[in-house]
Amino acid sequence: MATRRYRKPRKNVSKFRKNKGVKTGKKWTTAISAATKTLSKTGSIVAARESLKKQALFNARKLFGSI
Hints:
This protein is an all-alpha fold. The chain has a domain at about 30-65. Helix content is about 55%, strand content about 0%. The protein has three helices and no strands. The chain has helices at about 15, 30-40, 45-65. Helix 2 (about 30-40) packs antiparallel against helix 3. The chain is elongated, with a radius of gyration of 24 Å.
């Protein structure tokens, strides 16, 4: 059964290889990028520092779980 006569073309190959190499899911927000974004929006260093601490806490909870 290995002859060309019995081989059938694979039509659904592209369906399985469509998302190869593409990462899906939620992206991580680093604490520094959150602080930079807050600083550019508000112009306040105090608010940027607060958002840095808050984002660092969120990321630590994601990694290690809440204590």
